[in-house]
Structures are given as structure tokens and as C-alpha cells.
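We append the chain.
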Amino acid sequence: MTTSETRPGRKKGPWRRGIEGVGVLAALFGLLIVARMVLTPWDLPLPGKPRLTGYWQGEVSYTADDRRRLMLHLVNDNNCSLACDVTGEVKVCGAAKDTSGEFAGDVHNWSGSRFSLELYLPTRKADINMRELDGEWDGDVIRMKTKVDVINADGTWSSNHQMPDPPMFEMRRAGEADFEAAC
């Protein structure tokens, strides 16, 4: 037997074990990406497909004379466990009553085409306050309906001073600069 022949039971060298380890880690990383694309296609879609997460802008009409710009920054929330799927920031601009806050929400189906957001905005007295958004997403357009409460000047709420919820409105993609410049 020559020294160049491989002997049975010979241990692998450290370089070979290192290369195999890197290969296993790369395969696991690739598997995680594919799993996320399958489980949340609305956040990490296949190449060339739109995503729900990102920046969005639209205009909601509370009344004929009260139109407000709505800005959203939707983010997939990996830390929220089963309680929510998306979180982010919201800005409502206009009628000299600009406000901003956060939201958390749920995606109601696998594709992300239906979702709802619970808004955490400061309550404004003597004003219309948005509390929830329900969305239907289709590519680069979200059709939204909002639920609102009218808060009296003394900070109370009464059922006989409420208005109907505003009509459905559309939101379109926006950029980070648009979001930062709003309000």
C-alpha cells in the first residue's frame, strides 16, 4: 500500500470539514428564504412579484370638506408571535390636525390580499379619530375602509354624535422620502 492511497476510516481534514460546514449553513439559509417565500408571499414574494410591506399613501374623505392624507409604513413583524403579522407607522395629515402613531395588524389569508390594522393614534378632542383600517391588497393598490369615532370637545364619546364611516379609498405605493416629508 502506498501513502497516497486513501485508508479506510481516515479522518477528514479540517479544511474539508470547514467547507462542508459552510455548505450546510448555506443550504439551511437558502431553505429559510424559500420557506419564508412560501409562508409569507406578501412580505417576501418571488422575484418580480409585488409585496404588501413598504410605504403607502392615500387620501381619505371624512366629509365633503374634510379630506386627509394617510401614510403607512407596513413592516412584517417577526417578533409579534401569533398576535399580529404586520406593524408599522401611520401618519394622518390635513385639516390642520396632523397626527402620527403606530399600528399592529393581521393578514387574513395566505396571499395577504385581505388584512386589518388597529391604529394607535393619540385621541384628539373635538375631532374625527381613525381607529381601524381594513384593506384589500392587489399589487400596487390597496383599497381601504376605515372605522372612525367622533370625540366630543370634552373628550367623551356618544353614539348620537357619530358619523357614518368614510367611503372606501385607495392607497398607492410611496417612498420613504414621501413618508418622512408628510405632515
In short: The chain has a mean pLDDT of 83. The longest strand covers residues 127-138.
